Structures are given as structure tokens and as C-alpha cells.
Amino acid sequence: MAGVDCGFSVHVGIKNIDPDVVFAKLASLAQGCEIATKRIFG
User: Fold this and answer.
1) CA atoms within a 13 Å half-sphere pointing along the CA-CB vector of 38
2) Left if phi > 0, otherwise alpha if psi is -120 to 50, otherwise beta: which for 16?
3) 25, burial (CB in 10 Å: exposed 0-12, middle 13-18, buried 19+)
4) pTM of this structure
5) How far apart are CA 16 and CA 31, in angstroms?
6) Mapping DSSP to helix (H, G, I), strand (E, B) and coil, where does residue 29 land?
7) What is the model's pLDDT at position 38?
8) Looking at 1-42, which runs of residues are DSSP E strands?
9) Do 11 and 22 meet the contact criterion of CB atoms below 8 Å apart?
10) Which residues contact 25 (CB under 8 A, 6 or more apart)?
11) pLDDT of 1-42, one tens digit each?
């Protein structure tokens, strides 16, 4: 299992984080998981 400290937890309750940035980061993490899965399991 992979894990990451995405850095957003320190900003809980602060409303200056653009949701598009958050979703883009989460999307890139998901894409990385897909790439790793294909390389490891074929």
C-alpha cells in the first residue's frame, strides 16, 4: 500500500485552497497508482 502526506491537512478550515488544485493532485496520485499497478502486475 502506498501512502502520501499530501500537505493539505495543515490547511483544514482555511478556505484559500483552490479545489481544482486539490483534485488535480489527487488525480495525479491515482494515475501514478494505475501506472505502478500495470508495471507490477502487468
Assistant:
1) 6
2) alpha
3) middle
4) 0.65
5) 26
6) helix
7) 97
8) none
9) no
10) 6, 8
11) 566 666 666 766 777 778 888 888 889 889 998 999 999 999
